[in-house]
Structures are given as structure tokens and as C-alpha cells.
Design goal:
The protein is of the alpha+beta class. About 30% of the residues lie in helices and about 15% in strands. The longest helix has 13 residues. It is globular. The C terminus is likely disordered.
Amino acid sequence: MTAEFGHPAAPADFCLCWRTRNPVIYVLGRAQCRSVVPAISDDTHADDLDDLCLKLAATLYPRQTVEKTTMVMRRAYGRLRYRDEPTTQTSPDVDRWFAQTIPNSADAVFCAGLASNRWSRHRAALPRTG
């Protein structure tokens, strides 16, 4: 990531996307982004991300259907099952959303978020004050 995003011509922002059935992974991904889809009980949603999220999901998983309102992919993980469903222990709204929206552990949610390029050399090259 440092080599790719640290290039002087690298963009200041980029899109991060991930597919998960684990609320902990969702919370970790959301923490890296200033806006994310789906926005679970959070004000980090940008309307323009909905279409981008659907396009990315269709590109990465062309045979998988994505529910437009929730970004859920049913049966994405086939026969894989959790022995014990993971929970965040710190974000009950996210835990509740996962339990209600994807109760089958074979289902997944596809997420996309806008993140700042923290590896950018532009930031490292800026003079420090103080």
C-alpha cells in the first residue's frame, strides 16, 4: 500500500471495498473511511457511494446478486458456517443489523467506503510548523 499509494501522483482519496459476514470486520473497515455503504446506524453515508458499491460488487463478483437497499449478497459463502456468531461487543447497532439482516452466516454484506490516502507523499513532503 505504501508503494502504490505513496507515489507522488497518487490520489488524495481512494475507495476501499470489502465483503464480510463479520460485524467486527465491518466496524474496522468503517473506521478507515469517512463515508461508507451500507451505513449502519451511522451518518457516514454518501449517496454517490451506492452506485459505486453496486458496480464494484458486480465487477468483483459477477455471478452474485446484491440487494440494492442493504448491499447483502445471499449465500455468498455457500456452506461455510460460524460455530459462534461474532459480535463487536462495542457496537450493538452493528451487531443487531447483522443479526437481523444477514441471519444466515452464508450471507455477506458488500461494503464500499471513501478513505483518505494516509500513505501519500504529499502529506510527508509538507513542511512542519512549530
